[in-house]
Amino acid sequence: MAVKGHRRAAAAVAALALTAAALAACSGSTPDKGGGELAIAGYKDPSGNIQQILDAWNKAHPKAKAHYVDLPAASDQQHQLLSQNFLAKSSTYDVIIADDTWTDEFASKGWLTPLDSAGIPEDQMFPSVVNGGKYNGKLYTVPFTASAEFLYYRKDLVPHPPTTWSQLIADCKIAKANHMGCYAGQFAKYEGLTVNFNSAVASAGGRMMSPDGSKVEVNSPQALRGLKFLTNGFRQGYIPKAAITYQEQQGQQAFQQGKLMFLMNYSFVYQLANTPGPDTKVAGKFGIAPIPGLSGPGVVTTGGHMMGVSSYSKHRADAQAFVKFFTSEANARQLLTKLGYAPAWKTLYADTSLTKRYPYLSVIGQELQHAVVRPRSKNYVALSLVIQNNVYAALQGQKSPQGALSKISAQLKTTNAGK
Amino acid sequence: MATARRIRGTPSFWLLLPGLALLAAVIGYPIVRAIWLSLFTENSRGTSTDVFAGFDNYRRALFGTAAHDFWNSVGVTAFFAVTTVITEVVIGVLLAFMMHRAFRGRALVRASILVPWAIPTAVSAVLWQWMFQPDGVVNAIIGRQVLWTGSDWPSRFAIIIADTWKTAPFISLLVLAAMQSIPDEVYEAARVDGASIWQRVWQITLPLVKPALAVAVLFRVLDALRMYDLPAILTRGANGTTTVSLFAYQQAIDQGKFGYGSALSTLTFILVFLVGFGFVRILGARLAEAAGPVAP
User: Fold this and answer.
1) Is A229 helix (H, G, I), strand (E, B) or coil?
2) What one-character-per-residue DSSP string does A374-386 give?
3) A35, A111, A409, B49: most buried by Cβ count inside 10 Å?
């Protein structure tokens, strides 16, 4: 009797466990934040500020409520999920948040609705950033933040920031005297390397593709000078050898530990490095400036998070209105003050109360006047991989800079031809 | 009586059918579908993979435009398979010998030695990536500034070290189990005959653990040929560490070329199958002889 009851209990527990596991597996696949008409798919925002903007929309539009669907943090995983959603022609996502480099790919495949009639005030945003959302002259995605790297420099060692590469290299003897690395950006073999290479080429007056994206123009003397600034850095030593492994965090840590004199990085470093504490040795000792270029101020790569409307959405009109709302100036101001996102709106950079609170705003504003985007391609992932492979080999000294550029040029031509 | 006969008479096939159906759906269908998909390529817009291309994808990978990259990754994979398996076998067997002796705390050592094997590969890859940073733990211990993930040979060594750390315990435990099943009388007889320690190891222990070792090596070789997480996380395939699986993933998932990616994974499947088949054929005969005298 007792044995039978024991067995029955065990069977019941096992059945319960299996059901629980099955339910857990099922519920994990469709994240549901409760009803609502519009589904906004984007990266997870733990601060809750994006949700606040959605709440404001929901209050004003009770008939077209929006809820947020979390995508993974890594941008290539977001790209995967969005591609799968569009390939299946699914109406699950109405509005999507995308990198600016995916615009060409998504728009050319007919996955996004043109937003020209949505009344987005493009002329009040920086053209360099807005252009990242255009394809074939039509607007497909709208930026709600603009990213741009700038130069952090140790003002206690170098009172005036360098404005050209030769000045920067000349300043490096101060770094040597202080046993520090001189300059670093992001040079590991990942997307950040493409950004750094793109900025270096542009800062030397070159460009990767023709403005309409049809011709590959990376094999030019200007681009070569841009690449040589980086390869010479490793060869001559003004870029520390360890920088070949640097992504954004590693450079930030080196700078904060006082091991680096010049750092090219994004705005997130500012707060972290300037807040006195055990993590930083440079609080109050550094300044910021636009990045230097070959013969004058440099040209930086801008990219941002863009919002687009899925062409398979069942609520395209509401979705377009939502995009206009989310990317408005008021919300851009909120994203800046709450999350530190640099805005795409020109007007916000002229607001002195903001520029006083966020010193990097005026630097970014200066750079956005003539920033460039990454090369346009319908298969941006393949393009970026080609650049990463060859530039990385050149930085390691395994390829000559000219050889790397020729390889990139040849491979870009085949990538763009056989898409 | 009648019930017993009826149960015994029921063909086991029908009882196995639900399980087999599930396996066919979960394992068989994706394989068949991948092979089918590998015969197609994307339409001009890239919105679906429905243009019939026959064996074009295979041609491209084996002798066409991507042949250089593909065969490169096969070479890299073969290199890793050979080096990691050899290192793991040597270290694993040494560990097994160490654990074979009775000493205080042996049970604790045996339990803790399995910890690296139990940690998911992706987690241990992130761990090792952190340790291999230029200013990280490994460089601090050896006192030199090696760019583990920044140059060719250090990157390869980094992957070999991380992989060995994770799987040598697996081999050591399999070998240990076989060692423990060798009856003591065999050793005593050898000692009586005047065999030295070295002779006992070479002529008794190792031959008798060969079957278990062969199985362990087979598992490890097949695993190593499919290595993906370590190069993906440690080096992202840089510095000549792109294995076949990583290459297929980059083409299929990152770039959405599902037809071409399916062809690459089918080629990987064929490669692993051939190696495994060859292994079993070569070892199968030897296993039959070796297992003779100690057959249970």
Assistant:
1) helix
2) PPP-TTHHHHHHH
3) A111
pLDDT bin (cut points 50, 70, 90) of residue B111 is confident
- CB–CB contact A244 B147 (8 Å): yes
- pLDDT tens per residue, range A371-398: 998 988 888 888 888 899 999 999 999 9
Residues of A in contact with B147 (CB under 8 A): 241-242, 244-245
Q: Residue A47, Cβ neighbours under 10 Å: how many? A: 9
Query: Which tokens go with A56?
Result: 């404001």
B254 Cβ neighbours under 8 A, 6+ residues apart: A76, A80, A381, A385
Return d(Cα A135, Cα A154) in angstroms, integer: 41
- A34 three-class SS: coil
State whether residue B184 sits within 8 Å of chain A by CB.
no
A189:B256 CB<8 A: no
Percent of chain A with pLDDT over 70: 90
Closest residue, chain A, to B250 (C-alpha): A382
**Global ipTM:** 0.71
**pLDDT-based confidence at residue A32 (cuts at 50, 70, 90):** very low
Q: What is the DSSP letter of A295?
A: S
Q: Which of A72, A107, A66, A71 is nearest to A86 (CA)?
A: A107
